[in-house]
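Notes from the 1:1 (GR / supervisor)

We went over the backlog. Supervisor wanted to see one worked example end to end before approving the batch request, so GR pasted a single chain during the call. The sequence is below; no edits were made to it. Supervisor asked that the structure be written out right there so they could see what the output format looks like.
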Amino acid sequence: MLNKLIIEFSKTLEVFNLSPLEARLFVHLYLSKEPMTLDDMSEALGKSKTSMSTSARHLYEANLISQVWKKGVRKDLYEANNDLFNTFVTSHFKQITSLIHRQKEVITNIEGQINNSETFQNQIKDIIAFHSQLETLFENIKLNANT
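Structure output shown during the call:
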């Protein structure tokens, strides 16, 4: 039944741009009572230590897991960040808002380079307004999630 829980929760986490392996690793770390080494992760998931290292690095960079220290243990230990909602929402919103902002800037630059076809200019303005609305939406959601 534990394996079914790991698989099903992993499917949810894949929505947050995690690979299936990264999602399973996060769930495994989240359910683990103790921090895990790369060797522990490799054994638990049946994957190579290199795969675990790559996946752990991605999860760490996304601030989904933390590296911890334990007296007497010389290997790197990792544990999942426990505040699931804020951890995932914050990480994902940063990615989304960054992408939206970047695309809005690119499209605004394109607008300045396109000929003066009024219909086309109106459509570009609508596209830029769409990006602005998305930025506002995600900023409002982020503010509500933090309260």
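Supervisor's comment: The first strand starts at residue 65 and ends at 68.
Batch request approved.
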